[in-house]
Every structure is written in C-alpha cells, then in structure tokens.
Specification:
Blueprint: H1 3-18, H2 22-31, H3 36-44, E1 50-52, E2 55-57, H4 59-73, H5 75-92, H6 98-121, H7 125-132, E3 134-135, E4 138-139
Antiparallel strand pairs: 1-2, 3-4
Helix pairs in contact: 1-4, 2-3, 4-5, 5-6
Length: 140
C-alpha cells in the first residue's frame, strides 16, 4: 500500500472516531455486561496516539471503535469469543499444567466459538473478516 493512501485511510478513521461520544459507549458497554474495570481498561486505550507520516493519529480510538462496532454488529460471535478467552484465563491460572493446557484448549475452542457465533449471527467467517477489515468501503 502506498504511504499516501495509507495516511488518507488512517486520517479518515481518525476523523470518524474523534466525533464519537465515548461516555455513551462506556455506558453501553457496561449495559452489555462488561465490568466497570474492563470498560475503563478498554477506554484507557483512547489516549494512545502514533505518528503516521507527518500526522499524529489517535490509534487508540480507532482500535476501540472497531472493537465496539464488532460487538454491536456480531453479539453472538463476540460473546462466544469472550467466553473462550475467559475459559483460557481460568485454565491458565492452574499451576504447572495450566499454561500448556490453555494453549491447547484455545487452539481448538477459539475457532469453534468463532464458527458457532457466526452461525448465530447469520454470517460466514469470511463475511465477518471482510466486514471487520473494511474501511470506507475498501479493504485494508
């Protein structure tokens, strides 16, 4: 990808997510069952910026915005992925065998959760990936 095109796409995303009311997003996330601590952690990313070319882009807002869009569009897929990640954390906390077991369980459970969630949401995994990595009608 050419640098000018990449800069244009990042600038468009930066402008799109700069006008979002993040307080309303925080309330919405909490109403969906996300704990206050997790909401604060996620919204803590909002302040992360990076220099891209000659511009400073608020990458944190772009990442959090994409995550929120994903949760809003694909609730079953999001819930199934979060369930696997919670299970992974629980298994990893077991002494000695936990880290090895969590890797194996996640390797099988995450794709299964993705397939299960996309079926409930009525999309295929390919459609979901194309939609997630699409910016302004163009794929990244």
């Amino acid at each position: 990808m050419q640098q000018a095109l990449a800069l244009e796409r990042y600038a468009a995303l930066d402008a799109e997510y700069s006008s979002v009311n993040w307080d309303k997003i925080a309330v919405w996330l909490h109403s969906k069952g996300l704990s206050v601590e997790m909401t604060e952690l996620l919204l803590g990313l909002l302040e992360h910026t990076e220099k891209v070319g000659s511009k400073v882009i608020n990458v944190g807002k772009i990442i959090v915005g994409k995550i929120v869009e994903f949760i809003h569009k694909y609730p079953a897929t999001s819930a199934s992925i979060l369930a696997v990640l919670a299970l992974n954390t629980l298994i990893a906390s077991v002494p000695l065998l936990g880290p090895a077991l969590s890797t194996i369980v996640t390797a099988f459970a995450l794709p299964a959760a993705l397939l299960f969630g996309t079926q409930i949401d009525g999309k295929s995994v390919v459609e979901l990936a194309k939609d997630f990595f699409c910016i302004n009608g163009r794929n990244i």
